[in-house]
Amino acid sequence: MIHIEKGPEPETFRLWKEQNPEATYGEIPKDVGLALRNALLLEQGFVCCFCGCAIGPCDETGEVLQIPLESIQPHNIRNAHIIPQSRDTAKTLDYGNLCASCNTSRHPKSEKHCDEAQGNRELPVSPLQEDCLSYFSFSSDGEILANPQRTKEEQEKARATISLLRLNTDSLIAARKTLLRALRTLPSEQVYLALARLFQKNAQGAFVPYYFVPLRYFQRI
Predict the structure, then answer these.
(1) Is 167 within 8 Å of 50 (Cβ atoms)?
(2) Mean pLDDT confidence for 97-103
(3) Quick check: helix, strand or coil at residue 209?
(4) pLDDT at residue 72 in the model
(5) What is the CA radius of gyration of the chain?
(6) pTM score, two decimals?
(7) DSSP line for 145-191
């Protein structure tokens, strides 16, 4: 989890809300919903707001493409309400409360995580907090842990967040371990060059999936 700096909401979304002040989230038209989803994807660099995996449309093989959605097409994205809709109805259409999460609703129960796991529970630590990543650390085996340098209360918040979002499922641990292992086998000078590149989005505006994990592991952020 890394801080998401929210930008202005898409104009089509703003205008629709202005013209439909009594509307609910479920009434968002398809074209407005598409603009909203693409704004969230671009804002986050096409990675999940919680675990950091790649999100976007999926090709015929199921591979996730980190590019904007063009229309109704297969994808692995969910719009996540950081403060759940059931907890604060006033934030249901608040762009500042919306992020893009991966969608694990069709995964086996043991592999459901992020927005699917959160449900209507509030997060002790959220990606809208500027210092959210500092609550966590990562082991060389890919496990996400509470940062031992934080206070006991803050460590408990981190552990509760990890548990609530199920950020230590086998697939997430394996993906983080693979990325860390690839970097740890490089000569030291190449590691720093690789880490510098992880700070940058590619030409399509996408981050490397899980990019903040090695940045945190190597104490760059």
Answers:
(1) yes
(2) 97
(3) coil
(4) 80
(5) 18
(6) 0.92
(7) EE-TTS-HHHHHHHHHHHHHHTTT-HHHHHHHHHHHHHHHTS-HHHH
- What total of structural domains would you count in the chain? 1
Has residue 92 been placed in a domain?
yes
* All residues at 6 or more sequence positions from 103 whose CB lies less than 8 Å from its CB, including other chains: 75, 76, 77, 78, 115, 116
- Residues in the chain, total: 221
Measured CA to CA, the distance from residue 70 to residue 219 in angstroms comes to 38
The first and second tokens of residue 48, run together, are 């999940």
User: Is residue 16 included in any domain, yes or no?
Assistant: yes
Q: Strands 136-138, 144-146: parallel, antiparallel or unpaired by DSSP?
A: antiparallel
Across the range 114-134, mean pLDDT stands at: 96
Domain assignment of residue 60, yes or no: yes
Which residues, including other chains, have CB under 8 Å from residue 215's CB and lie 6 or more apart?
195, 198, 199, 221
Decide if 51 is inside a domain: yes
Tens of pLDDT, residues 11-54: 999 999 999 999 999 999 999 999 999 999 999 999 999 999 99
Per residue in 54-92, pLDDT (tens digit) is: 999 999 998 999 999 998 889 999 999 999 988 888 889
CA dihedral sign, ordered 66, 167, 135, 183: negative
